[in-house]
Design goal:
Elements: H1 5-18, E1 22-25, H2 30-43, E2 47-48, E3 58-60, E4 74-76, H3 81-84, E5 89-90, H4 93-104, E6 112-120, E7 129-135, H5 138-147, E8 149-150, H6 152-158, E9 165-170, E10 180-184, E11 189-193, H7 198-201, H8 204-220, E12 223-225, E13 228-233, E14 239-245, H9 252-256, H10 262-267, E15 270-275, E16 279-283, E17 289-292, E18 297-301, H11 311-316, E19 322-324, E20 327-329, E21 334-336, E22 348-349, E23 355-356, E24 370-374, E25 391-399, E26 409-411, H12 415-423, E27 426-428, E28 440-442, H13 455-468, E29 474-478, H14 497-508, E30 515-516, E31 521-522, H15 537-543, H16 548-565, H17 571-584
Parallel strand pairs: 1-6, 3-19, 4-5, 4-10, 7-9, 9-11, 14-25, 25-29
Antiparallel strand pairs: 2-3, 6-7, 6-8, 10-11, 12-16, 13-14, 13-15, 16-17, 17-25, 18-24, 19-24, 20-21, 20-22, 22-23, 26-29, 27-28, 30-31
Helix pairs in contact: 12-13, 12-17, 16-17
This protein binds oxalic acid (OXD) and manganese (II) ion.
Length: 585
């Protein structure tokens, strides 16, 4: 299928180490995929679901010890330890290859090695990059087919001399104690072993599109960010694009597919989804920042997804979707998860494959159970989704889950201050996670687990990019999770977040008012449209208030986080912190 000598040599080298029984090149044809689906069905690796209710859908269960990304076993292997920085695990490349090749030795014996050519971004776009994943898992092939653009066309685009990101994955024995997700940014290589869980094995996603790509972007002058991309269309038919970064459990997929409140829909407002997880951002010829979603599907968290919370996400999963670790409803051969509806199936199997009694208090679906669904099936997918040049970004939005500190929304004073706001991003732990509630976790730009190099250099790159973008997006911060003294959420969230997005776009257009405060520009209460919302101005005033004592505490928290970053923290960010402290006094 290819004459690319570097690729043929690398496949042969990895074959010699992993010793599969055979090698199959994935051409992306329906015939080949169907054959693989049939094989995986025969072995029980995937279970075909009800053809009428969920056509083309399958259920898969991972090993019970293999249900999430493993940050403590994720490594950035640069020749100099300091280049990986204080927030990443590090191993010397030679030592790591040595260790891994022992684990890969004969790991594919008795199995087939699948060679998956894939493109992150529309095939052939100057924004896009090609990867090759070698894997011994059909589940991985079928997921990669949804999440990326795969097959022969990718190899044709690669050509004889094209460069590619190498990815080697083997389930090996699924041994937790020998599970490793390793990145070698200096040789564009990713190695994953002893896992079968999506985030660890779909190497195009977090490993390539964030960790390796952030490293490439640093070298080449662009940015790979953990951001959704949405387009907001106004009644005049103009669409403005927003890129937004949130730590997990802050409703990123929900915001990406937001349905505006009825009143807005009647006026002609629409929201279009370009992406729900990753954005690659480059400076366009027109001096604006342009974004492409490098993915082709959604790898979304199932629990909590419902007709109420996110009808667009749910609709995306009604065909051609792979469900992982959800409940199997045996009565009609469909799937279910907590939060889908109030009718858990009676005759059912839980995510571990055991008979499940929905009245015994146990969870049927794993809290991190997932759907892998084609983006094209999303009812609000943007007509620019496949655009080779991407979409121009008007606003960058950072956010977190904060009970008291952060107001509903504020705008940074300028790019440098916006980078400071992103670098200080944080979320408070909720009762849904184990451990103490209300603990502040810093997650700068939501990239802490995904930045493939030193966090201090990453901040410097953001500052540098700002100087190079003549017409840079404005930077904002939002918090949908502010509570009253009894712990009730003050803001309705979901579709009503549209009201905040509208202010954000109006600010970008110079059309909305704002007050200057110590932390940034805040809307005046009357600047947020409350029409047809059951909320009084006093509640909104509360949502927009800035408590200086809490912010003084916050600045101490930021200072101790900065201390961990060390002396590669750009001086401009320390200056921003000092300026914030001065404004608070
Ligand atoms: C994800 C994550 O799965 O951010 O997208 O963990
Ligand atoms: Mn993510």
């Amino acid at each position: 299928m290819t004459n690319n000598k570097a690729l043929l040599q690398w496949v042969a080298d990895m074959q010699a180490i992993t010793k599969p029984d055979s090698v199959l090149w994935i051409d992306g044809t329906e015939a080949q995929l169907n054959e693989l689906r049939a094989q995986a069905t025969a072995t029980g690796e995937i279970i075909p679901l009800n053809e009428e209710k969920l056509p083309g859908c399958y259920l898969h269960r991972t090993a019970v010890n293999d249900v999430a990304r493993v940050e403590d076993r994720t490594f950035i292997c640069t020749s100099r330890k300091e280049d990986a920085g204080p927030t990443n695990n590090w191993m010397a490349p030679a030592d790591c290859y040595d260790m891994l090749y022992k684990l890969y030795d004969g790991a594919m014996t008795g199995r087939t090695m699948y060679v998956i050519p894939y493109s992150m971004g529309p095939i052939g776009s100057p924004f896009s990059k090609i990867g090759i994943e070698l894997t011994d898992s059909i589940y991985v092939v079928l997921n990669m087919q949804i999440m990326t653009r795969i097959g022969k066309e990718v190899l044709d685009t690669l050509g004889e001399n094209g460069e590619f990101i190498k990815g080697l994955h083997s389930k090996a024995q699924l041994d937790e104690s020998k599970r490793y997700i390793c990145h070698f940014p200096e040789d564009n290589t990713i190695m994953s072993v002893n896992s079968g869980y999506g985030g660890n094995v779909l190497l195009g996603k977090k490993c390539f599109a964030l960790r390796i790509a952030s490293h490439l972007g640093h070298r080449e002058g662009w940015m790979a960010e953990h951001m959704l991309i949405l387009g907001l269309e106004n009644p005049q038919g103009e669409v403005h694009y927003i890129a937004a970064a949130f730590p997990s459990a802050c409703g990123k997929t929900n915001l990406a597919m937001l349905i505006p409140p009825e009143l807005y829909r009647e006026k002609g407002y629409k929201v279009w989804c370009v992406g729900d997880d990753i954005a690659w951002l480059r400076i366009g010829e027109d001096g604006r920042l342009w974004a492409v979603n490098p993915e082709n599907g959604f790898f979304g968290v199932a629990p909590g997804t419902s007709v109420k919370s996110n009808p667009n996400a749910l609709a995306s999963t009604r065909a051609n979707t792979i469900f992982t670790n959800v409940v199997h409803n045996l009565d009609d051969n469909t799937v279910w998860w907590e939060g889908l509806d109030k009718n858990p199936p009676k005759n059912a199997v839980n995510w571990k494959g055991e008979p499940w009694d929905c009245t015994d208090g146990s969870k049927g679906a794993h809290p991190n159970s997932r759907f892998t669904a084609p983006a094209a099936q999303c009812p609000c997918i943007s007509d620019q989704f496949d655009s080779p040049k991407g979409v121009p970004i008007s606003a960058i939005v950072f956010g977190g889950r904060r009970a008291k500190t952060a107001p509903l929304v504020f705008q940074s004073f300028n790019w440098q201050h916006g980078v400071f706001v992103g670098s200080a991003m944080a979320s408070e732990t909720t009762a849904a996670a184990t451990g103490a509630v209300g603990v502040v976790r810093r997650d700068p730009m939501a990239m802490l687990p995904f930045c493939g190099y030193h966090m201090g250099d990453y901040f410097a790159h953001w500052l540098e990019m700002g100087k190079r973008i003549p017409n840079a997006p404005k930077i904002f911060h939002v918090n949908w999770f502010r509570t009253d003294d009894e712990g009730h959420f003050l803001w309705p969230g979901f579709g009503d977040n549209m009201r905040v997005l509208e202010w954000i776009i109006d600010r970008c257009e110079g059309k909305a008012g704002a007050d200057e405060t110590a932390i940034g520009w805040l809307p005046k209460p009357e600047d947020i449209d409350l029409e047809a919302l059951d909320m009084d101005l006093d509640t909104l005033r509360g949502l927009l208030s800035v408590d200086k004592d809490l912010w003084k505490e916050e600045s101490e928290g930021i200072a101790s986080f900065y201390a961990k970053i060390g002396d590669r923290l750009p001086a401009q960010l320390r200056e921003e912190l000092e300026a914030l402290k001065a404004r608070l006094n």
